Amino acid sequence: MNAISNLNLEEMRQHVLGRFASLFESQTRTHLFAANVSELVRNIHAEAIQGLQASFRQMAGFDIDPDKKAQFMAGIEQAITPFMRLDETLALLLEERKRQWQQNEKNLLQVMLEFDQISSELSGTLIEKDLLERQSNVLESIILSHEKVTQWKAFIQEILSSFHSIFPFNFFFISFAEKNNLSLYIYYLNNYSEEIRTAARMRLARDMIASLGLPADAPLDIEEFQVVENDCCDDINEINLITVSVPSLEVVNLAGLLGVAYGSAQELTVQEESVIRSILSVMVMVVGSSKALSRTLSELEYYSTHDPLTGLHNRRYFNEMLDYEVGRSERHNHEFTVLMLDLDDFKDVNDTYGHPCGDSVLRQIAETMHATMRKGDLATRIGGDEFAIILTETGREGAMVVAEKLRTELREISFESSDGKTFHITTSIGLVTFPGDAQNVSDLMTGVDIGLYRAKELGKDGIAMLESTERIRTERTNRDHAEKLRDALKDERIIPYYQPIFDCRSGKIWAHETLARLVEPNGETQSAGMFIETIEKYGLGRELDRVILRKALAAMRHCMDEGSEPPRLFINLSAQEIQGRGILGFAEQLCLDFDIPPSAIVFEILERDAIGDMTHMRKFLSNLREKGFSFALDDFGSGYNSFHYLRELHFDYVKIDGAFVRNILNSKIDYALVRNLSHLCQDLGILTVAEFVESQEILEALKAMGIDFAQGFHLDMPLPRLKSSD
Ligand code: C2E
Ligand code: CA
Ligand code: CA
């Protein structure tokens, strides 16, 4: 549409300039006409005067009465005078006309110049507006989904080809310096000959190496893409570049440049250059975030399933695989066995030789374990000094052999402390077999725990399994537990505690998170961590959330009645509540009843729940937002998919999983992870909350990363009442 208005503008310009030209022409004609007419009049007068003067001279020779003669001569002179006057007046008039004409011409010219300038400015703005609109259209169409981020190179190609009609350049390129390597991606906007491509490659590589400060012999990694299949006959003698650097890559320790290259035969107009720059600014955004995201994504992907210290898989992965293995073995009628290993008196190693030594012990144990496993078996580290192993298609006897072998190999490793002392470690192992000992995941885990416990009881350094008579009672205890919780909910013995969340910059309380507490009949309180699993499992989540919400809003009202500003509250939502959606109406009604603005409420949604059903989640959140509530993604970092959701679902806050935060000073990887998450959220305009801030040092490190808010035992414990914000 804007292209058309530009066309109209140009037409109008031509039209007006044409009118000006014809005005000039007619003015010049009038002027010439006037000059000719007055010339003609003057000539006629001159002739007439000459005639009269000739008659006059003739008359002088006649012999007539001198008086009459004088009278006649005076008559002639009198007749000539008006002609002469008329001539003088005409000359004056003409002079005046000419002056006016020149003045007019000056004015006209001025108007014409002004018009020309205004119209070209106008066409400039139209182009800019047009570009801005296109740019924002393109930006809108660029949704950095998980899939696009990981395939960003193809994504760029897609964007370029949708743009190619307005591309007056020949190549588009992106370059990154990574560990002294140069990666160069070249997109050809035409079908060039191999010579031209080679020249382009060489020129780009040379320039990028220089611009990114790499050594001249830096290894090159070039990838090329053909965007448009136009044949091109232009020779490109010399290549000119327009480059832009990709910012925010320092997040992932990358330096990058991108730009376009064009042959010198093509002179770029100012507008073309502005087109190119606007496209480049779009590309910088796409490339920068894609690259940063895909980097962090793959890191997270790795660390979401691996233990950073030993490189073994982690507890989450173990849980997933155990689930999977139960299903698989059921279908195929296989047996399999789970081993749970716990190092004996490992705490003493840490206490005596220090944590670095303890870490190195864990690493060596992991290596040995890994070497002892068959392919297809899975060794994982599921806790500090706890390891779990799945032996696929292995029954009790086979598993005993493996366990025995492991136990002896581990006790034979000779460890060395930093001061040169050697020591050994023994291991206790619990063993449980599917389906002989247990038939589901939960029973398997209970069974293996019982085995491990018995091995420890029997004096450590041993292997133990379930006695055949042993019953697994977890189901039953859980059911009893659920009954107890149901009663507690009914008796209003489940109440909210409030943990303050601090603003890292001002140091003041920014909000509180409500955390459910169970008050036992004897007055003792139990943390949510003790019962939340049972609550969710027995479908009590909805009731819990409503009780907490109602009590928390009543507490807020109370605060406000005492003259405080409405305190901001972060409230946990259970998966069930999200499924049900009824919470919306409930929360809205409570806000009305208590006269509390919904903007004071931030609902926390666990990452694993957000990942469930995307379409549903999007609708749920947009309904929440419509009502004025905000929301936070809880335990962020514990599942890698969340980047996609983060962007798509527009969370207001992200709470970075405390398991990473509490470790940032001990683990470089956790540090990098939290820092990357923080930068990513900053890039996406999402506020960050770090949980489990357990020391001043951690707080300082978080502040340095630019984390917005902090929560944790170091700052304040969960308390039975809201604190005032100053
Ligand atoms: P969460 O939402 O991640 O809450 C943080 C948990 O970490 C709380 O445990 C809190 O007491 C604890 N915590 C706070 N600061 C620190 C710290 O510095 N270090 C350590 N190690 N822990 C810290 P809590 O209260 O036992 O809650 C456990 C989980 O139960 C919560 O995890 C949340 O997912 C769930 N939950 C709690 N209250 C509710 C509720 O009202 N409704 C629902 N649906 N879930 C709740
Ligand atoms: Ca929470
Ligand atoms: Ca959390």
Describe the structure.
- The chain is an alpha/beta fold.
- It has four domains: 137 residues, Helix Hairpins (Orthogonal Bundle); 160 residues, Beta-Lactamase (2-Layer Sandwich), CATH 3.30.450; 153 residues, Alpha-Beta Plaits (2-Layer Sandwich); 226 residues, Alpha-Beta Barrel (TIM Barrel).
- It contains 22 helices and 21 strands.
- The strands form four sheets. It has an eight-stranded mixed β-barrel with strand order 13-14-16-17-18-19-20-21, surrounded by four helices.
- Helix 11 links the parallel strand 11 and strand 12.
- The chain is elongated.
- About 1% of the residues have low confidence.
- The site of ligand C2E has 25 residues, from strand 14, helix 14 and strand 18.
Short description:
The chain is α/β, with parallel strands linked by helices and 726 residues long.
Question: What labels describe this entry?
Answer:
binds calcium ion, 21 strands, Beta-Lactamase, binds ligand C2E, 726 residues, 55% helix, Alpha-Beta Plaits, alpha/beta, eight-stranded mixed beta barrel, single chain
Q: Give the total of beta strands.
A: 21
Flag low-confidence runs.
468-476
User: Any idea of the CATH topology of the largest domain?
Assistant: TIM Barrel
Intertermini distance: 56 Å
Instruction: Provide the helix percentage.
Output: 55-70%
- Describe the strand arrangement of the main beta sheet, using strand numbers: 13-14-16-17-18-19-20-21
